[in-house]
Structures are given as C-alpha cells and as structure tokens.
Amino acid sequence: MNNFSVSLFLLFSLLLTHGIVELQASTNQPYRTGFHFQPIKNWMNDPNGPMIYKGIYHLFYQYNPYAAVWGNITWAHSTSTDLVNWTPHDIAIAASQPFDSHGCWSGSATILPGGRPAIFYTGIIDSKNTQVQNLAVPKNYSDPYLREWFKYPKNPLIVSTKPIDPTLFRDPTTAWLGPDKRWRMLIGSIIDNKGLAILYKSSKDFKHWTKENHPLHSDNNTRMWECPDFYPVSTIGQKGVDTSTFGPKVKHVLKASLGGPPRDCYTIGTYSIGKDKFIPDMEESLGVVPGLRYDYGKFYASKTFFDSDKNRRILWGWVSESSSADDDKKKGWSGLQAIPRSLWLDKSGKQLVQWPVVELESLRVNSVQLPSKFVEAGSVLEVSGLTAAQADIEISFEMTDFEKADVLDSNSTNPQLLCSQKGASVKSAFGPFGLLVLASKDLQEYTAVFFRIFKGQEHKYVVLMCSDQSRSSLNDKNDKTSYGAFLNVDPVHEKLSLRSLIDHSIVESFGGGGKACITARVYPTLAIEKDAHLYAFNNGTEKVKISSLSAWSMKKAQIN
Ligand code: DQQ
Hints:
Elements: H1 3-17, H2 23-27, E1 42-53, E2 56-64, E3 74-80, E4 87-93, E5 104-112, E6 116-124, E7 131-138, E8 149-151, E9 158-159, E10 176-177, E11 183-191, E12 194-202, E13 209-211, E14 217-220, E15 226-234, E16 250-258, E17 263-272, E18 277-280, E19 300-307, E20 312-319, H3 325-331, E21 333-334, E22 336-337, E23 341-345, E24 352-356, E25 364-370, E26 373-375, E27 379-382, E28 390-398, E29 406-407, H4 415-422, E30 430-439, E31 447-455, E32 461-468, E33 483-487, E34 496-503, E35 506-511, E36 516-521, E37 533-538, E38 544-554
Parallel strand pairs: 1-21, 29-31
Antiparallel strand pairs: 1-2, 2-3, 3-4, 5-6, 6-7, 7-8, 7-9, 10-11, 11-12, 12-13, 12-14, 15-16, 16-17, 17-18, 19-20, 20-22, 20-23, 23-24, 25-38, 26-38, 27-37, 28-34, 28-38, 30-31, 30-37, 31-32, 32-33, 34-35, 35-36
The structure holds 2,5-dideoxy-2,5-imino-D-mannitol.
2,5-dideoxy-2,5-imino-D-mannitol binds near residues 73, 257, 300 and 301.
GO molecular function: hydrolase activity, hydrolyzing O-glycosyl compounds
Protein name: Beta-fructofuranosidase
Pfam families: Glyco_hydro_32C (PF08244), Glyco_hydro_32N (PF00251)
C-alpha cells in the first residue's frame, strides 16, 4: 500500500468503527427505508409520547435494545426540528424500579401549565404482565432535548381495581384539563367482551388520580382497547386545537387500537365535559366493519399530538413488518413509523382527512410532470426519470360517461374483501386503474394501488380504493393480504386523486386528498433499488384520463 491508500484505509476504518459508514445498510439491506423513521437496528413498535417542546419535536417509541423481535420493552427517544430528519438519544425510560421491573409499555405526554411536559406510561411489574400506570418528568427542563427522565418515586400512581383484569389495563392517553381544574386521562381495557376507555380524574397536581364510575365510552365485541386516543378537532378548517379545548366549535375523536386483525378505529362525536361523557355520532361505530379507520392497511397503536408551534394535530402510527420473524432476525430490524400526518375533520363532519406533513416535501428532487393524457383500456405507462424505489407521486384521474360503470352488488359492503376477490386483474368498466409501484421491468413483481368505480344505490357512484400486494414479491413467506377502502368522493364532480409514498419496503397511499389511507409493506426481490419501476395503468375496459401527474425522487432523510 502506498501512503495515500494507507491514509484512505485508516480513514475508512475510523469511519467504520464510529458507525458512520453503515456498510450493511447500503449493500445487503434493500428493505431499509430512505425517509421513514426507523432505528439503526432491532425491534420497534408503538410511537409513544410525541410532543413539541421548545421548538423540538420528540418521538419516543417502544423498543427492544437487544433483538429484532418484541421483548425487553423500553422507551427509545429521538428528536427533530422538522419531523423529517431525526437525531437519536439514549433510551429515555427503561425498567429499573419495582413499578416497571418487567418493562415500560406505551403511554403519552401531557404539557402541564407553564409548558412543562409529563409522561404517563404503563409499567409491567411481574412475569404475569400485571400493569400499573407511572409518571415520569424531565430531570432538566432547560434541556430542549429532554434527554433524562425522572420516575416519580411514589409510582405507581394508578393501579387497576375490580372487575378490571390487571393484565388488561394499559396505555394512558394524553390528559386534558377541565374548567374545574381537574385533569382527565383514559386507560384502555376490556370488561365482558366490551372494549372500554376507563376514565380517571386527577387533582390539580397531576399526581392523585381517581377512577370515575363510568368509562368515557365502551363498545361491544371490540376486544381489548389498546392505545386509546381522545382529542378535539375543529369544525371549521384544518387547524388543530389543543387537547383541552371544548365547546360548540369542536367535535371529539375517540380512537382505539383493536386486535385481530390489528386496526386503528375511530369514531367522531360530542364530548360533554360537564357529564364527562362521549356520545358518538354513530352507535357501535368502533366495532363495525369496515367502520372508520385511520388507515385500511398496516397501521397500529397510533397516537396524535397537538403541534402548538404550527397549530396542527399530527398523527404517528406504527407500521409492522409483513415478513417472517426469521427474516426480520436476519435483517436485524423490525418496524417502521408511518410518515407523520396532519389530520383534520372533513367538511362533511363524518370522517377525518390525513396528509403527510408538509415538511416531507423538502426531500423532493427531480420533479417529473406528465401532461394530461388518456390511458387506453389495458395499457401501462412508465413514469421514468426518478428513483422509483424512493419516490413521492401524485396522480389524478378523470372519467366521463359513467353509465357504463358496473353495478355494485348491494351485499358487497366489505371493501377489503372486494379488493382481494378482484385483485388488479379482474376487469370492470372503470377499473382497476392507478399505479404499479416497486415494479420489476417485466412486471413479474409489482404492488398495485388503484381504484374501481361502481354504480351504487340511488344513482350514486361508489369508489373503491385497493392496495394489492399479491404480486409484490417472489418470496412467498411474506404476508400479502390485500387492503381496501371505500372512498367518499363523487367521481362525477371531483377528480380522483392518489398520492403514494414509495420507500423500498413501504407504500403509503392517500386517496381523495387523504380521505382514505392504505399502507402496505412489501419486499420485492427483483424490483429493488435501480431495478424498481413505476407505472400508471388502466386495466378496465373504458379509457380513463390522467388529468395531472407529478412525481419526485425522494432524498434520503437523516434518520438516527
Ligand atoms: N404495545 C405495547 C402495549 C400496547 C401494545 C407493548 C400495542 O402497551 O398495548 O409494547 O401495540
């Protein structure tokens, strides 16, 4: 080696030992993402305690420091100034005391008067998974990164009481303050096959909590309510409001994470602070299928927070893997967070609308625009000139002459079933049309995100949005379940828009400007890196018009 090679070698070894060069990540890791939040390695699940403090966004998350499977659960911690680029910190909360000796499970942050954050989390106190609720506060309020947390010595502050099963009693929400100066907080549970949000009230000091006689709400046949969330949304416009806001200008949203299959369901209604009761606009709305869901694909244990700097409510959600646990162990990691989404009440007042935070657009480069054009029946159109494995695309479609639309059987009320029965290959008049993402050149592999339009009841049209993973990978060990949602858009009067965030092994899609969202995990074996392609397609029997198409390569974000 000459002097120059020796110095290069030394520099390279130095970078490697400091973990700056992640050799593995660039070579053997086609499924690591470029702009989604994930730790360097190991297991991650629920987002915890998101908040903004002194202009810094905080994200804590359920993390196993030792393996790529669930276990040894701690609160890991990262911060950001833009919700896009993230700096890791030391683990914030880990098992250390009798009140959390077997793990620190999910919880939330509340900003107390004077702008002081406090965290409530579920402590696991034995091998039976007995659950109690604990308080932690920052050690140093002048540190905007809130790197160290102090567990209140009198923990646990809340323990379960009969008839609650102490192993099904967890995930405290952000608290809200009533006009009586008492805080309220929910804890998820189940009694007699009815999922419920138990309501606790505290004294002014946030430390003494008593259980109310009635839950805030409960619903039949919903299993255990994990990670409940409860917050107001403005009835006018898209601005978010602080969690302790009540009155005629807001509606309230109650969300619960329900198992089998995992899904985050919500319901909109009215909250009477005087009676401490939530009355949903629709009865039993959390348990019904399809019901209202944040995301009709993979998205669970989510949590919102109010961004007081930008007056918006932001939603975080965990996106698990669709690969086998063995494959997760081989790649050394499991779990992503969806791109944080701004969320607001739709004009109809009947559902929420979600959209990736605007800061994400700072990663867009190499814009590709397509003039409006017809896509003939049975044709495929490549969108080239971008990094198709790491991209953001917005497309909208227009159609005329809906008379030819197929009639939807009035018994077809389950959109996911419809999507999986018809896939992307069964032709109807209008649809399937949409995008083929993470596609190989020969279309042996692709993930299809698309629409179908049907004639429904009373001269109305029904729009179905699907994400079909059945051809997403030649590897058959992955879960390739199809996802679907009805999209509340009138295609006669509105364009049909679709945005997809494509990031190596995740595809997050937003239909109708965010009225329906579907997230999928896919692991192509051919369509990776430079061999990934992006297409618009129309496999229906009628032509459709692309009225606009803009796509971008996405730069890599600095994540952990
Ligand atoms: N994950 C946590 C629990 C929560 C579940 C444990 C939801 O607190 O109920 O890691 O994914």
